[in-house]
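Repro case for the chain-ordering regression, as requested:
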Amino acid sequence: MKREDLSEKILDIKRDRGWTWKYIAGEIGGMSEILVVGALLGQMKLVKPLAQKAARLFGLSETEEKMLNEIPHRGAPMPPTDPLIYRFYEMVMVNGPAFKALIEEEFGDGIMFAIDFDIEIAREPNPKGDRVKLTMLGKFLPYKYYGNEPDVPAYGFKE
Amino acid sequence: MKREDLSEKILDIKRDRGWTWKYIAGEIGGMSEILVVGALLGQMKLVKPLAQKAARLFGLSETEEKMLNEIPHRGAPMPPTDPLIYRFYEMVMVNGPAFKALIEEEFGDGIMFAIDFDIEIAREPNPKGDRVKLTMLGKFLPYKYYGNEPDVPAYGFKE
Amino acid sequence: MKREDLSEKILDIKRDRGWTWKYIAGEIGGMSEILVVGALLGQMKLVKPLAQKAARLFGLSETEEKMLNEIPHRGAPMPPTDPLIYRFYEMVMVNGPAFKALIEEEFGDGIMFAIDFDIEIAREPNPKGDRVKLTMLGKFLPYKYYGNEPDVPAYGFKE
Amino acid sequence: MKREDLSEKILDIKRDRGWTWKYIAGEIGGMSEILVVGALLGQMKLVKPLAQKAARLFGLSETEEKMLNEIPHRGAPMPPTDPLIYRFYEMVMVNGPAFKALIEEEFGDGIMFAIDFDIEIAREPNPKGDRVKLTMLGKFLPYKYYGNEPDVPAYGFKE
Amino acid sequence: MKREDLSEKILDIKRDRGWTWKYIAGEIGGMSEILVVGALLGQMKLVKPLAQKAARLFGLSETEEKMLNEIPHRGAPMPPTDPLIYRFYEMVMVNGPAFKALIEEEFGDGIMFAIDFDIEIAREPNPKGDRVKLTMLGKFLPYKYYGNEPDVPAYGFKE
Amino acid sequence: MKREDLSEKILDIKRDRGWTWKYIAGEIGGMSEILVVGALLGQMKLVKPLAQKAARLFGLSETEEKMLNEIPHRGAPMPPTDPLIYRFYEMVMVNGPAFKALIEEEFGDGIMFAIDFDIEIAREPNPKGDRVKLTMLGKFLPYKYYGNEPDVPAYGFKE
Amino acid sequence: MKREDLSEKILDIKRDRGWTWKYIAGEIGGMSEILVVGALLGQMKLVKPLAQKAARLFGLSETEEKMLNEIPHRGAPMPPTDPLIYRFYEMVMVNGPAFKALIEEEFGDGIMFAIDFDIEIAREPNPKGDRVKLTMLGKFLPYKYYGNEPDVPAYGFKE
Amino acid sequence: MKREDLSEKILDIKRDRGWTWKYIAGEIGGMSEILVVGALLGQMKLVKPLAQKAARLFGLSETEEKMLNEIPHRGAPMPPTDPLIYRFYEMVMVNGPAFKALIEEEFGDGIMFAIDFDIEIAREPNPKGDRVKLTMLGKFLPYKYYGNEPDVPAYGFKE
Amino acid sequence: MKREDLSEKILDIKRDRGWTWKYIAGEIGGMSEILVVGALLGQMKLVKPLAQKAARLFGLSETEEKMLNEIPHRGAPMPPTDPLIYRFYEMVMVNGPAFKALIEEEFGDGIMFAIDFDIEIAREPNPKGDRVKLTMLGKFLPYKYYGNEPDVPAYGFKE
Amino acid sequence: MKREDLSEKILDIKRDRGWTWKYIAGEIGGMSEILVVGALLGQMKLVKPLAQKAARLFGLSETEEKMLNEIPHRGAPMPPTDPLIYRFYEMVMVNGPAFKALIEEEFGDGIMFAIDFDIEIAREPNPKGDRVKLTMLGKFLPYKYYGNEPDVPAYGFKE
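-- result from build under test --
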């Protein structure tokens, strides 16, 4: 069995029952909606208690429940062809250089951690048309300059 | 003269004077730091009063000032090879399907507008290591289903 | 069930019954023909009343009707290998720079909205050979320069 | 001398004099604005009288005037990274299959001619925000089925 | 049913009966051999009377006969990996620039029509080894310079 | 010095003097026009006497004359973006499978030789618009099945 | 039936019976081992008597025997990911320019024929570790310079 | 000035003086040799005191010293064509799936940190030929499952 | 049967029984864990006694056992989309130039052998978060400069 | 200075003096012609005494002589567009699977060494047209199965 077959089965059940993602994420609970939906679509793992709830909700077999608890091979095809996803891709393509310049100036050499971070989507009512508010919160991880600080022994080229 | 030559000149001046982006954006003012830096790196336009301030700050010629006010040919090479920018790319690659599922459920068919939106980066102090907080606020733009609403005449195939 | 399997089923029925797209779009009605055909080919969603008409026309199951009402993962493979579609691709490749120059000069910084727009195809009789007339009508969406207008607060880099 | 160097020179002059494309196309005249701008950007040729007018306007040398009259090596890099041009690319990617289905049904096997066609861009005032109207008018070119019609002798495999 | 499944079925029948393409094209008749074979391989359509003959020859169902009469989604994967097809690809890659220079000089700005043209393959006996003679005959299609000729009104940018 | 710089120099001279390719090929003579033009564009070599004539015609240095006699690194970028060249590419993409089927049936396993072949372009007057006639004549090169014929010793795996 | 399904079937039988390629090539005989194995893996054709032997050895049906006698669509995916095959690819990537320089100097303008050539692999015992000896023997095929030799009439551009 | 020009200048000086990387890294000191060499090749930054030492060693200008202290746009072209670097690429291509399986089983969901890690290369003498020993030491960074632990509030979809 | 189907079957059994890779590698034993897991995932071969143990452990058929002993077609798709594997890819992309500079200086012209080397993964406890330690040990393979050493006869170009 | 500039300079001198590669390789001597030519084209290093001879022959500066002694960043662009080099690429593409099958059966799991091997090109006179004989001789490098042999300790996953 492949993870994508499990995702397709879950989508079939969701369609038949007329459930929303909101309802599903509410039933499974305990975690950001984006992460729960990501797991059901095959991009994240569900920790055991949540995998169990998901299995009960969708009437999955024990094997399928175990698969939801496995870490999947992540990553969708790029560049995205779907317009909604492409807009995020474009946002990175256009603003990437400025992100790099400002984050490095503020935090130093390193990266914003794309793995251990949380994402929240919220609707912001606005008389001229509601807005989508997307907040990402990631730990900053600095490059270490080994050998350049007292507690970090430098590695050399030893024979 | 090409826009990238102008960006390189600006980076040379910034390096020589030892200026920070914060200082530069503060001097030019009036707009989100990301947009100002993006314009100096060749991805955005500066409106006339800001282009003037930038020209005065960097001692640019009149032609260079006009170029900063032009809309550039946007977009950096993809996929990004730089680790900091790649993390954002990866975030879209892994979470794109969940973004699509949740935004469409909440807002209907359409897209979050990647052009008319604002971006804010903030440092969030944290005892376990400070965090980068990135907030994007974009208008939701729905697909129109022409002919399906009283005020939108359907287009047909007319001979 | 995947959307492409549903499209293939619809094409099989269309072929067997000898229906034209014109007939099908007429039966489903209420929307631009291009959008109706796009939905049946898996690139658009049909709003509920139209999905219902389509389901009745093609004798689809309730699940299949729901799927037609879902927003698909849009986008066909590029570059197009089919000559008819390639001609449109080429038109963008050759005229893209001029579109950008003229639209930006007329409208300012922004984009023509490729999502909320309508498309009409019409036959224009001509003694030297009929012509295809393709009309696209899209809202212009300007870049906002936040912080540069009284009602748009600028975002900064806050610590 | 390369065509792209000539385009850059023309852009430099346009920037210095503060001319608009509208003004330039008006001075050169006699042809669709998109085609004139396309020629100055290196994607089209200017017929001799227009090349002469362009040379006089920009103060070009005789050699540069001749180059404007040459047919350039057409085509910009794809996929486009600039958001404005990408929207047209996306429009083809999403609607291509429906274009093919409807045009072939209406006209038979063939293609809409992407070379011998005209393009017009117009602003359509609209209280909810002006719209861009793009009209393309192209001759339909049918596939010939040689040997299948009295006046078209079939080709065979002759030894 | 997909067009490629139909092609595979036709190849299976051809193999079992030991037929040659020459024989098959002779039975179906009325058109260039290359076009008939192209249609059976899924790159061309057969007009109705020929589709009927092909169906009778191969014992196809009515639905399969209709599919042969449909215009397929054309285009094989590129670059070709098969040496025989690659040689034609290489011929375009190496001689393309000279084709462009000579055809444009002789005919003016435009293209040789790759759709409405005929192709003939013939064996040319030669004591040093027979030769393949490939003849292509295509209509030349000139670019139109709208607005530059009395009967072609120029399109402008109208507000 | 690079071959492409020499080609650019030749194009500059051709433009300044107002020469046609026909005139140039006539002056250099002795070989197919396509091959002469191909050599001047950097895709073919000119044999010594022709290189000498070309050098005299264009007033080239001795070194440049020698370079014209060198075999260049052949091949233009693919896929072609220029519409005229793309049509030939498309012709291979759509008809490649039929070429393979018919040529192999007629000649057996092998390839049409894309190197040792000649190409002729001719204008065919036609009341409905002149036509371009492109004739390619190539030797057929069969695969050898070593060890399967008396005079071809089979190679084995010898230890 | 597809050629790759036949190859998979042959590999299944080879595995079950525990045969080596050496044994199989010996049973089919009459041709270089590389070509026989290439044919069973779907990259070459087997001439009729060998196809018959192969069919008897593997217990294939008459249709499968015919398929082995067909010329396949050649070419494996590139670049190769398998380390053993990649080494040959790398050898071409690194030594290609020197091959070109030396072969052209020795033989003149043309190519080594990659189709009508033989390949032999042999083990060369060596106290420091045995060596693989790969010998390729290919006919040299010169470019013809038509019109430049008495017996080769030049092609021109005829109207 | 671009970083790659600075790297080229440094390589020129190194060549002229006949210095080894070992000597250079020893003079600059204080950090792993790989990181120092990486910085001089344009992939890492040198912290200020090291940039100063490097500037003194190579006789760089103040601006060049500042550039060495900047964080470069990291990443060399992929896939690597150089055999030495390709072997590491291949090692990831072949062993990547096993790395993923074993590291995730041992550490849970997360990644080995490719930024904050150290690398050491050592020569390991061996009678059968010395060996290269490459040691990488990276912190493991776990995925956080927000909302699933008492101190991590879950993000929801708030309106 | 394909190797990837066998890998999927093994993963299904592992999931159902709740086995860890550690347990599996312990049962099969005798080799580095990475190589055993790599073989089960289809990237390595298991030598016969280990293939037998694996077959007994997973209850495989005799044919499946033989397949595990076959050398697979190695190599996973690149670039990796999964974050954990990508980090190794990035490590090569960023540090590749420095690896090349230092290894070549220390060992001379050649490569670290990516095939005959061993890999060890170890957990290194650390109060600030455990670390992953990856050690690679590869033989250095020097380029031979044939003809330049007494015992290596130079190859020439012999006629 | 870049290696490619040095190669261009060497080609300029070779052209001016009318030298052949054979003459040049004879003057520099002591190594296979392919390797000498490869070094001058920027794909190999020349050991010191040969670099000295080359420098004297071409009248190079001391710095240029040192550069010839450096190991270059190897690898030409792929796939090759030049027909002569493409034939070798095609040979790998078509015969790669058979190479793998036969070499692995004869030698076991491993690779033929593409770095430490020699290549010889020879002309083989033949009444039907001379032939190019290319011989490659490479050491076979087996995969080691660590832990599976008494003298190779297995690596485990140690905590």
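Ordering looks correct now. The mean pLDDT of chain D is 84.
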